[in-house]
């Protein structure tokens, strides 16, 4: 195209006589040619750029598609891995669901998990037990689930009987020896009913209690003991201090617990937890968990029965308009005329307040009689509490070792003046300061709430500010309770009480005082400072319902789910090194073996009938677990064949690369559960609820009904907790509920005062005597209060705490014992008379009947070896 243009340009005529025009024509042709060339190059560049952009877009689309495919592939792999790991997680969880039982073990002691010197601690402890308490049978296993060592304790039947004497266990006596219940004496074992049956005479909780006492009473000898952990770190245990509690205080020993009996526990679940409408099996609870736990559930059942009366009466008052009393104060403040049904509402309010006073008195007296009956049936009625006959608690510290003035056994001695100095000089002031501080904080937050409500309560966007003091108050209650619990335990340890009963009673007193301020402070503030009965009713209803629901959830659902997730997580982590096929095969084998064992239901063999160590035989012969090379304490590699004290067996640490197939035991799982030392929190929860019903139920008549519904559910909740979510507690013989009885009696007196004060707040006195002064109204309320208190104390004095049939049976038992003693004394006298030579024969032989005066001899002290080192006592033997 460019050539044609040039030719056309050349055909144009030009003037030869004008050289300038010819030159311009040539320049125009060249310029046009260059312009055409630039346009063509630009078009080529544009086409190339377009192709490049298209190629780039195609490349980006390809990258995006490849990235999406890669992401999809990764997501699929992640989902598949998650499904596979979830299946492994669920499959490995069957290992703890079908955990092997641990028979022939009464007490389990676990060393601190993942401790660097775990084997050293276990070896040292077993060596001390072998030295100071050789009657104990102990074996050591390595817990792969928690990477710690566990010491399994038991004892022979004979040694358990000796320990029963030291623990003052009460057992039934044969009728021909007087009958009744009596402290067990080993020398008189043939006098007790059922002593010949080894498997039935001592219950599981009694065996565990005896073994626990034997372990805890092992104390450091003169000069103390030293546990050398590292080159520069060692633990010194002073003379007379209990060894195992000292190790627990230092964190070297994690847990000490009795193990559950699966068959008995399963039966108890069916007859107690699942039987909602049936009566509680108190006798079975006592046999399995001990008298202390059984006494709590008996008290809870008795309280539930007693709550039927205020529940029905309060429902009646609610239906007939008894709750409208809160309008009295409003009408008085607004100067509005009283309503027509005001008199009926006032009467309902006063009658309900008086009913509470009478009901609480009758309930407390009824429970005293009921607990006396239970204590007589359980053989703890004549238990001498707080005396020198009780052994000192393991954590009791003394300046020296002195003989007990009653028994003669050596035990720690702590001067009484030190105890009183700590109690009155430190504990009382600190407790009072804490209570006053809590009350001041609570009062300040309530005032802040009222102030914020008056300013921001009607605001559309800032009304939430009025809720901040309430939220802060709830946080203060939670944090303050936890901090004060630790402080109360520290102060109680500092006071150094000798017996477990004294320690627990004074701990209860400290906690109850603080809890009363935090639980009832808001109600007293609303009822007597603000004098707002409507708000008091709403607050009481909110506290009753929310507190009950939240506590029940925290007691059962949260620990149960948490423990199961913990078990599953640990078993999953323990089996990570196993392949899927190996894990599936191992879990199937464990499941089939447990099911076959449950079907076979073979009776267990007692430890005394076994020639080899009981736990070792169970491992090898019954479970078939693979055993690792073991070593003994003090003598590595050489087996010990002593039937009385089998040396422990140590299992090597479990490494993640190990391809062995671990099998969990029930003991390992129970060691991971929460502890349940005493029913203190359960008592406290019911005590606070009893205070709500007794003190402020006239403000909310349905409080009794709410408490009744909660208690019907609370019995099964606490039963579920004991059977499923916590460790089995050690049993302890008790004759009553201890300080809780005195606390409830004080609550009954305070209830009379508060109900009379509420009567004065209702305005009834002012309406009956409108011309009466304010001081006269207070005087009438005080006189009414004194009359009710006098009636309360009269009922307390008139109703005996012990039923007549219990007193008669106690007198019968004492009479039979005296008669049996007289018969035995006459029999021994006759035997001695028949065996001694007659006077005539002595005269014939020339022996004078006048005996020489006996020579004065120094009393001889014989040292007897008892079941525990602390029980070594001196017997004074003076020849008469």
From TrEMBL:
Q: What is its main location?
A: membrane
In Pfam terms, one family for this protein is: Anoctamin
The UniProt record lists the Anoctamin transmembrane domain at 285-812
Q: Where is the composition biased (Low complexity)?
A: 849-859
Residue spans of biased composition, Basic and acidic residues class: 1-13, 52-61, 833-845
Q: Which GO terms describe its molecular function?
A: chloride channel activity
Q: How does it sit in the membrane?
A: Multi-pass membrane protein
Cellular component, GO annotation: plasma membrane
Q: Where is this region: Disordered?
A: 1-61, 587-614, 833-868
Question: What residue intervals traverse the membrane?
Answer: 296-322, 343-364, 421-441, 461-480, 511-530
Instruction: Determine if Membrane is one of this entry's keywords.
Output: yes
On whether Glycoprotein is a keyword of this UniProt record, the answer is no
Q: Where in the cell is it found?
A: Membrane
For this UniProt record, the keywords arranged alphabetically read as follows: Membrane, Transmembrane, Transmembrane helix
Lineage top rank: taxon: Eukaryota
> Its family?
Belongs to the anoctamin family.
Q: What is this protein called?
A: Anoctamin
Q: State the organism named in the record.
A: Plectus sambesii
């Amino acid at each position: 195209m460019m050539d044609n243009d040039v030719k056309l340009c050349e055909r144009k005529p030009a003037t030869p006589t004008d050289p300038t025009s010819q030159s311009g024509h040539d320049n125009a042709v060249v310029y046009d040619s260059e312009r055409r060339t630039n346009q063509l190059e630009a078009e080529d560049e544009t086409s190339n750029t377009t192709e490049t952009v298209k190629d780039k877009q195609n490349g980006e689309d390809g990258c995006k598609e490849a990235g999406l495919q890669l992401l999809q592939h990764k997501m699929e792999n992640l989902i598949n891995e998650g499904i596979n790991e979830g299946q492994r997680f669920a499959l490995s969880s069957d290992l703890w669901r079908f955990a092997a039982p641990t028979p022939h073990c009464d007490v389990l002691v676990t060393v601190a998990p993942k401790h660097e010197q775990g084997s050293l601690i276990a070896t040292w402890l077993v060596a001390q037990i072998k030295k100071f308490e050789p009657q104990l049978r102990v074996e050591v296993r390595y817990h792969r689930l928690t990477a710690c060592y566990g010491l399994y304790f038991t004892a022979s039947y004979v040694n358990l009987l000796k320990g029963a004497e030291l623990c003052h266990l009460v057992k039934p006596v044969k009728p021909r020896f007087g009958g009744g219940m009596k402290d067990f004496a080993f020398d008189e074992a043939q006098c007790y009913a059922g002593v010949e049956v080894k498997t039935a005479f001592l219950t599981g909780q009694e065996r565990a209690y005896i073994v626990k006492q034997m372990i805890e009473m092992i104390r450091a000898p003169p000069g103390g003991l030293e546990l050398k952990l590292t080159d520069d770190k060692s633990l010194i245990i002073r003379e007379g201090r209990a060894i195992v509690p000292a190790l627990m205080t230092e964190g070297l020993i994690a847990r000490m617990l009795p193990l559950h009996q699966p068959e008995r526990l399963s039966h108890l679940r069916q007859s107690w937890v699942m039987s909602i409408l049936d009566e509680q099996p108190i006798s079975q609870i006592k046999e399995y968990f001990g008298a202390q736990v059984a006494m709590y559930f008996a008290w809870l059942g008795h309280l539930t029965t007693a709550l039927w009366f205020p529940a029905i009466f309060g429902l009646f008052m609610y239906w007939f308009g008894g709750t409208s009393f809160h309008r009295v104060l409003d009408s008085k403040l607004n100067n509005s005329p009283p309503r027509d049904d005001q008199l009926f509402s006032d009467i309902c309010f006063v009658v309900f307040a008086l009913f509470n006073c009478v009901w609480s008195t009758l309930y407390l007296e009824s429970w005293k009689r009921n607990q006396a009956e239970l204590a007589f049936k359980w053989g703890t009625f004549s238990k001498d509490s707080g005396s020198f006959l009780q052994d000192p608690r393991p954590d009791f510290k003394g300046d020296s070792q002195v003989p007990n003035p009653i028994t003669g056994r050596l035990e720690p001695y702590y001067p009484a003046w030190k105890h009183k100095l700590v109690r009155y000089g430190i504990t009382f002031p600190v407790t009072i300061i804490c209570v006053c501080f809590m009350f001041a904080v609570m009062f300040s937050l309530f005032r802040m709430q009222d102030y914020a409500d008056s300013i921001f309560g009607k605001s559309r966007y800032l009304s939430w500010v009025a809720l901040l003091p309430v939220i802060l108050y709830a946080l203060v209650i939670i944090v303050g309770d936890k901090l004060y619990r630790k402080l109360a335990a520290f102060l109680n340890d500092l006071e150094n009480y000798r017996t477990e009963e004294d320690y627990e009673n004074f701990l209860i007193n400290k906690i109850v005082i603080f809890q009363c301020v935090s639980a009832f402070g808001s109600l007293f503030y609303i009822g007597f400072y603000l004098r707002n009965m409507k708000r008091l009713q709403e607050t009481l209803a909110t506290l009753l319902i929310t507190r009950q629901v939240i506590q029940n959830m925290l007691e059962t659902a949260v620990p149960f789910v948490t423990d199961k997730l913990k078990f599953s997580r640990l078993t999953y982590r323990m089996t990570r090194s196993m392949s899927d096929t190996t894990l599936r095969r191992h879990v199937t084998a464990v499941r089939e073996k447990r099911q076959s064992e449950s079907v076979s239901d073979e009776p267990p063999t007692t430890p005394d009938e076994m020639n080899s160590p009981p736990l070792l035989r169970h491992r090898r012969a019954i479970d078939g677990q693979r055993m690792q090379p073991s070593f003994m304490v003090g003598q590595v590699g050489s087996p010990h064949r002593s039937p009385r004290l089998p040396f422990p067996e140590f299992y090597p640490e479990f490494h993640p690369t190990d391809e062995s197939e671990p099998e969990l035991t029930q003991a390992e799982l129970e060691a991971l559960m929460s502890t349940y030392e005493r029913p203190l929190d359960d008592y406290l929860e019911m005590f606070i609820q009893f205070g709500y019903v007794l003190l402020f139920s006239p403000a909310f008549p349905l409080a009794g009904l709410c408490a009744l519904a909660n208690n019907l559910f609370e019995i099964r909740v606490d039963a579920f907790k004991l059977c499923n979510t916590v460790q089995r507690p050690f049993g302890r013989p008790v004759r009553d509920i201890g300080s809780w009885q005195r606390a409830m009696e004080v609550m009954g007196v305070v209830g009379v005062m508060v109900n009379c004060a509420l009567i004065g707040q209702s305005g009834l006195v002012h309406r009956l005597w409108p011309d009466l002064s304010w001081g006269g109204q207070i005087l009438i309320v005080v006189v009414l209060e004194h009359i009710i208190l006098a009636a309360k104390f009269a009922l307390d004095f008139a109703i005996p705490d012990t039923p007549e049939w219990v007193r008669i049976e106690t007198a019968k038992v004492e009479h039979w014992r005296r008669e049996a003693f007289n018969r035995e004394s006459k029999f021994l006298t006759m035997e001695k008379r028949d065996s001694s030579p007659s006077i005539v024969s002595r005269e014939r032989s020339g022996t004078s009947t006048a005996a020489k005066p006996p020579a004065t001899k120094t009393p001889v002290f014989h040292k007897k070896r008892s079941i525990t080192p602390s029980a070594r006592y001196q017997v004074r033997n003076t020849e008469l």
